[in-house]
Amino acid sequence: MTDTSRLLDVQRWGRTTYADAHRRQLELLEARVAGEIVDTLVLTEHESVVTYGRKSCPDDLGALEVPVVEVERGGEATYHGPGQLVAYPIILLPEGRRDLHRFLRELEEAVIGVLGEFGVEGRREPGLTGVWIGERKICSLGVAVRRWVTWHGLALNVHTDLAAFQGFAPCGLAPDVMTRLADHAELPPGLLLVEVLLVKHLTRVLGLELPEPPPLADPGPSDCSFPQLPILPG
């Protein structure tokens, strides 16, 4: 029998506005707190927006041309937009692992694992949160928790237009410190490959499992057609 306490439901939302994704994330949070769903990982890509957490002052953001939204997570201001993979783990931290600092380190470890799949060395910066490649930051993190269920999460620059970080101090840093994976490795278009790898490494570091896929339908003895297989990125 499958241990449902270890299951992770992965939801791919595609391109979303931040407001819609925030609303849907809150619905999942409330359902997880109530025990109505298993741990859930949301993968999405936002329309352009700047969000800022509890450590930011909106007066520091200047006059930006994109929407600016205050959110509940920790951390400072950052940009979300096309080409960036955003992951929201809606996860009940089990007893013995109820430490948000540890959870942030686990998210960082998963991202470092993804970078390693491309032969890119990711690292932590002492005293700061996120993942760096050399002296440049590639991934920002900020989480919140309600009754030990986490929400918000991480933003990994994959094909992101880095010019969008100009005009404010992302994560309290100089805009030019930001980088993206496409500048360090050969990547296929889109985010699918990075999504698959992030799921792989998050399940590893968090000790979770994906549900078993449903069994294939029996085509019957007279049906010689092959089942349709997914097209994997080259």
What does this structure look like?
- The protein has 234 residues and is of the alpha+beta class.
- It has one domain: Bira Bifunctional Protein, Domain 2 (BirA Bifunctional Protein, domain 2), CATH 3.30.930.10.
- It has three helices and nine strands.
- It has helices spanning 18-33, 100-117, 192-206; strands at residues 8-16, 39-46, 49-52, 68-70, 78-80, 84-90, 131-133, 136-146, 149-157.
- The longest helix is centred in the middle third of the chain and has 18 residues, at 100-117.
- It is globular, with a radius of gyration of 19 Å.
- The two termini are 36 Å apart.
Most strands sheet = 6 strands, mixed
**H/E order of the elements?**
EHEEEEEHEEEH
Count of helical segments?
A: 3
From the spread of the alpha carbons, the general shape counts as globular
Query: Looking across the biggest beta sheet, what order are the strands in?
Result: 1-2-6-9-8-7
The CATH H-level homologous superfamily = Bira Bifunctional Protein, Domain 2
**If you average the pLDDT, what whole number results?**
89
Count of DSSP E strands? Answer: 9
How big a fraction of the residues is strand? 15-25%
- Rg from Cα: 19 Å
State the helicity in percent bands. 10-25%
CATH structural class: Alpha Beta
List the topology elements:
Layout: E1 8-16, H1 18-33, E2 39-46, E3 49-52, E4 68-70, E5 78-80, E6 84-90, H2 100-117, E7 131-133, E8 136-146, E9 149-157, H3 192-206
Parallel strand pairs: 1-2, 3-4
Antiparallel strand pairs: 2-6, 3-5, 6-9, 7-8, 8-9
Helix pairs in contact: 2-3
In short:
The protein is of the alpha+beta class. It is 21% helix and 24% strand.
